[in-house]
Amino acid sequence: MRKNWLVLLAMIVLAAIFFVGCGDDDETITEAVTPATFTNGDIYIDNSYYGLYFYIYTFVHGGANPTMDSLKVDTMLAGVSISYYWNYADPYWYFEYYENDTPSDYESGDDITITMYGSGRSSACTISLLDYSDDQTSIISPDYNETVDTNSTVEIVWEDVDNAEFYALYLERRWDSSGTYVYEYTYTYSDDTTFTMPARFTDTTVDYFYVYVQPTCGPNPQSYSGNWTGTLTTGVLYSYAEYDYLRVYVEPEGPPPPAKVNRISKEDDVAPSITPREIMQGLYGLK
Q: CA-CA to 7 of 20 to 30 Å: which in 22, 48, 183, 199?
C-alpha cells in the first residue's frame, strides 16, 4: 500500500512540473539591440590602381564609443588602419581597404560580403560589385550643348550597364540673376535607362542645366532601411561606376542670343564639381 502511494505522489509531481514548464511565462524573450553606429560607405573595383577598394565612414550614435577589432572580406580576415575621432560633437571613425592586386580577384556583378567586428558586436553587408571604369555608362541623347525649347519636355537617354541595379542622377539648373549665375540642384534616380527632366528645368528662367548619370548597386533609395545586418552598425554600403554628364541649353524658339553662340566644349567646360561619393550621399540624404 505504501508503494502504491509513493507511485501516485511521483505521478502528481511530474504532472505539476509538466504543466508549469509548458506555460507562456517560461518563453525566452530576447530584447532587440540597437546598432551602435551608422555607416556610410562605398565599394568598387578599380583595376587601374588597387583592385578591390572600399571606404567606410561610421558615425557613433552616442554613449560608449565602439571600436572595430577586425574585418572580413568574404571569408578572409583583412588588415585595415582605422582612424578614430572622439573629440567632436558627432564622433566617428573610418577606414579604407585596398586589395593591392590587379586585376582584382573580383569581377563586375560578383557579390561580396563585408563583416565588421568590434566591442562585442558584429555586422555584415552583402552587395553586388561594379567596376569603376568598365561599368561607366554613356549618355546617348540629348547631345552635349544641345539646345531645347523653353517649357519643352526633355528625355535623357543613356546606355544600359548590365550589372547596375539603378542609376543615381544629379540634376543642376543655372540661370542669370542680375549678372550673376545662380543654381539649384537635386538628387534622384532611375531604374531604367531614361529619365524625363522636371518641368522647372526648362522654364523661362533657366539658361542651361546639367545631368549626371551614375551606375549604382545598393539599397533602394526610395524605401531603403539600410543593407547592414547585426548589432554593430546600420546604414548603407553602395557600389558605383564613373558617371557621364551633359549640359543642355534652354532657349525660346528663334535665333539664340549672341552671348550663347560660342559654347564651351565638354573637354573645356568647368562642370559642377561633385564626386561620385557626394552624389550617393545626396541621394541617400546623408549630406
A: 22
Q: Pick the last residue of a domain from 102, 128, 154.
A: 128
User: pLDDT (tens digit, 9 = 90+) per residue, 152-169?
Assistant: 999 999 999 999 999 999
The pLDDT of residue 287 is 65
Peptide bond into 103 cis (omega under 30): yes
Final residue of a structural domain among 128, 157, 176: 128
Q: Rounded to two decimals, what is the model's pTM?
A: 0.83
Q: The CATH number of the domain where 102 resides is what?
A: 2.60.40.10
pLDDT of the residue at 14? 42
Give the Cα separation of 236 and 41 in Å (integer).
6
Q: Tell me the pairing of strands 121-128 and 111-118.
A: antiparallel
What is the spatial distance between Cα 274 and Cα 130, in angstroms, rounded to a whole number? 20
What type of residue sits at position 88?
A: Y
Dihedrals phi, psi of 34, to nearest 5 degrees: -75, 125
Q: pLDDT for 33-56, tens place per residue?
A: 678 889 999 999 999 988 999 999
Residue 205 CB-density burial (10 A; 0-12 exposed, 13-18 middle, 19+ buried): middle
Number of domains in the chain: 2
Answer whether residue 158 is part of any domain.
yes
Q: Is 13 among the domain residues?
A: no
Residue 58 has pLDDT above 80, yes or no: yes
User: Which cell numbers hold the place of 162?
Assistant: 548590365
In a domain, 223, yes or no: no
In 3D space, the residue among 125, 89, 99, 135 whose CA is nearest the CA of residue 226 turns out to be 125
